Amino acid sequence: MSSEPTTAAVGSARPRIEGRLKVTGAARYAADEPRPDLAHGWIITATVARGRIRDIDVSAALGMPGVLGVLDHRHAPRLNPQAGNYFGPDGSLLLLQDEVVPYAGRPIALVVAETPEQARAAAEAVRVTYRPEPHDVDFRLDHPAARPASTAFGPEADTGDVEAELAASAIVVDQRYRTPEENCGAMEPHAATAWWEDDHLHAVDSNQGPFSVSQVLATLFEMDRDWVHIRAEHVGGGFGAKGMCGPQMILAAMAARRFGRPVRVTLTREQVFLSTALRPPTDQWLRVGADTDGRLRAIHHRPAFALSPLAEYIEWCSEQAMTLYAAPAIRTELTAVPLDILPPSPMRGPGATPGSFALESAMDEVAERLGLDPLELRLRNQPAVGPVSGRPFSSRRSVACLREGARRFGWAGRDHRPRTRREGHLLIGTGMATTSFSAGVFPSSASITAEADGTFTVAIGATDIGTGARTALTAVAADALGVGTERIRIRIADSDLGMAWNAGGSRGTTSWSFAITEAAKALLERLEEPVRPVTATVDTSALIDYRPEKERHTYSAVFAEVSVDPATGEVRVRRMLGMFAVGRVINPLLARSQVVGGMIMGLSMALHEEGLRDPATGRQVNADFAGYHIAAHADVPDIEADFVPDYEPDDPLGLNGLGEIGTAGTAAAIANAVWHATGTRQRILPIRLDRVLETVTSGVRAGGLGVA
Ligand code: MOS
Which of the listed residues 153, 206, 348 should we mutate to test ligand 1's pocket, taking the one with most ligand atoms within 8 A of CB? Predict the structure, then answer.
């Protein structure tokens, strides 16, 4: 087929395809799916953190208007205990299977009625009694149950002689850094509308990967995967919490089967907090030793995170210690602490985000101890090859991010001593951090059909959770086929479209683009044939090199300026600048939006977000947006984000992932700026007013700054 010469779509800034649908309210989300004869489920969650259900008295509820019934462990459909997630078998999927309560917020019953209001009213009439058992939600690194974390992501680092290098160091920073439980907080609450037809399960669900959700459901209900049909056309954010098969989906599927009708389950905001996903708290011990010239001698990182005995999980906080800096000795000891909490899940740059807060705070402390520019400290310790793996880097534009970021931010000429800038009664400071996030591709399949009218239909089981995936993939397909984007029709977000990786791990777009590019190649070879429509389908499983000989990451340098009010403890971020190296950028408009969003999440982590658990009940007490603070518009300053020229040599399109690299690194840059403003370290997130007041006010008294 001949085509007009077209402008390359990849690399040009274009608004998102579905923007109009979204702003006019025409885009349908999982809870908007119209179904005839639809019934509604209302979840009842456990109020104790550990124990057993003694009784669920449904007698009053069953007599209430519109009630179809109540599902609980005594008669819910049986689920296959083999079902799991990325890390193996996952007991959090096995809802309503027994009387055991493993955490507060565990769904223990589903009331089904004609309307959501009737279901909710009946749920309030259900009486649950428990045999409580002692719970443990007391998270700390030295918890007696602490054990080595799974090494499914790779072995721990153990190079050189850490103790000898620390002993020989001119200075050693030896500190603990802590981050709290956090919640993903997507705007759209988890919802699913499910129905059965001829023993096939159909659903519209809010998730980050309909194919992987269909796989989990097929295992849970012991059926052929092809008989599970999951769609997730529009998703109002995920941030990790929709990466797995959620409770709304499992319970809606169970209830739809039991009552023989379509059933919708929509979580309340509180249930999203208590029953879906969290980032585990971390307690990280770090020792970093350096010579007087700033050359690192040793990094010892021992981060602990909490998990649940229900499922294995890895919050890989030690990844950056193996990647970012050269040092003769590096040791990591990732530690897991099982507690009676909601099982954690990936969230907004899992591992790297809390991990880089610790490492990049410690690096700032090294610079402080040496009286060195923190930017210069980073530049002096750049590795030539992977510091632990010894493997070469594919593309490593870390220094470019640091230098260009410093130039644009105006870092030169900064007085590196703390508490040297004031405006009126405000203390002003600047800080920076750098980080990496691992990149790569996972298997996906794509089909492209050349239609009789000269258009192309591109089908891939991708999801667009607000990132602009549809728009990016349209551009990739157009270039791969050598046609304009107006001739591309993209179909995504349906498990029937074939195996595909999730919108997750900053690997969605790279994985899907790879499959689309390969499918386009296969199709172009067949276009000489006169038959239309003609379809080419490619599965990249066999094309991916799982043991690349190189380290592949994205990089960032983030700079922040803050003001601190010593009278109130209030920290305001005044401006932030991030420079990113993410390989080739498909769409600068959407890519910038991704990393700006990521930086806002990092700001939110630094200053606001904190899931608080009551030790007495084991229950999260601030499970709503009034109590769990997330940065709002008024908290978000002037943010600038841009990309250094980059091209990933190991990717057919030169791509690496982006999204999560925007979040990781930002909290440390802000915490380091707070130190620069005040002269006191904030090693516990979030940097709350009371924490600032406690340290800064005592500093003010001691230092006689002359402000009240
Ligand atoms: Mo994610 S935290 O990449 O789902």
Answer: 348
**Chain segment 268-307, per-residue pLDDT in tens:** 999 999 999 999 999 999 999 999 999 999 999 999 999 9
DSSP 74-112: TTSPP--TT-EETTEEBGGG-TTSSSEE-STT-EEEEEE
DSSP readout, 613-629? B-TTT--BS--STTTS-
Q: What are phi and psi of 487, to 5 degrees?
A: -95, 5
Atom of ligand 1 nearest to the CA of 241: 4
Burial 270-288 (b: 16+ CB within 10 A, else e): ebbbbbbbbbbbbbbbbbb
Helices (H) and strands (E) in the chain, counts: 17, 28
pLDDT, tens only, 120-161: 999 999 999 999 999 999 999 999 999 999 999 999 999 999
- Give the pLDDT band (50/70/90) at residue 698: low
Measured distance CA(606)–CA(255) in Å, rounded: 41
CB 355 within 8 A of CB 348: no
First to last CA, the chain: 76
Contact 662, 598 (CB under 8 A): yes
Report how far ligand 1's centroid is from the alpha carbon of 75 (Å).
34
Name residue, tokens 């908007």.
32
Residue 634 dihedral angles phi and psi, to the nearest 5°: -65, -15
pTM above 0.85, yes or no: yes
Compute the distance from residue 505 Cα to the ligand 1 centre, in Å.
5
Dig out the tokens for 570 from the structure: 């209030």
Alpha helices in 527-654 (DSSP H): 588-607
Q: Which atom of ligand 1 is nearest to the CA of 660?
A: 3
Give the pLDDT mean for 415-438: 97
Amino acid at the residue 472: A
- Kindly state the DSSP code that residue 620 receives in the 8-state scheme: B
CA 511 – ligand 1 centroid, Å: 14
Structure tokens at 583: 């390989």
CA distance 647 to 334: 32
- Note if 660 is an active site residue: yes
Residue 701 has pLDDT above 60, yes or no: no
Written as one letter, the residue type at 469 is A
pLDDT bracket for residue 704 (50, 70, 90): very low
Nearest to 458 by CA among 488, 494, 503, 501: 488
